[in-house]
Amino acid sequence: MKIENRQRVLLIATLALMGLLLADRLVFTPLGRAWTARSERITDLRKQVADGTLLLQREHSLQARWSQMSTNTLPNNPSLAEQQLLRAIDAWAQESRVSISGITPQWKSDQDNYLTLECRVDAAGNLDELSRFLYDAEKGPMAIKLESVELTTRDNAGQELAMGVRLSGLVLTPNGHPE
Asked: Residue ranges of the domains in the chain?
């Protein structure tokens, strides 16, 4: 083979390889990435459609559950809400025979569509009485959440206990502010 022909063949081969490299970098790799991203997006959309379908199938039961939950929240009037929570605490104390030494209510507003009424309750009694108080607070239909419970002993034998409970009650405010 002549040197001129060899140089021409090498030049053509080099240009062809550079063309393939450029095609790979500018066309095939971006198309591959786009295809992968598209496939992932389709998978995500299919999952969202499946989740939406399940929600639509459960719509009536979810609506009924939400209706029941929203009717058990505290009233949208601050004084009525406090009164209802204090009455409930008093009823739980009488039922469990604990002695209440202090109740400190405080309003919290973290979101626009609800408020929470946090209430610190200090009570004393034996373990059975205090556990009954907590059970009554948790089992009722009222939208109350036990945030924290602190137990300390008041005697050397550990028979008389003091308990600090932080409760929070939910108040739904559809307009973003209480009545």
From this structure: 3-57, 73-172
pTM of the predicted model, to two decimals? 0.64
**Cβ distance 87 to 137 under 8 Å?**
no
Please state at what angle helix 78-96 crosses helix 127-139, rounded to 10 degrees: 140
Amino acid 121 reads V
C-alpha 141/C-alpha 71 separation (Å) is 9
State how far the Cα of 49 lies from the Cα of 30, in Å rounded to an integer: 28
Torsion angle (degrees, nearest 10) of CA 87, 148, 120, 84: -20
CA–CA distance from 165 to each of 54, 81, 109 (Å)?
39, 18, 20
Write out pLDDT tens, residues 52-94. Answer: 999 999 999 999 988 887 888 888 888 898 999 999 999 999 9
Q: Which CATH architecture has domain 73-172?
A: 2-Layer Sandwich (3.30)
For the sheet containing 114-125, what is the strand order? 99-108, 114-125, 161-172, 144-153
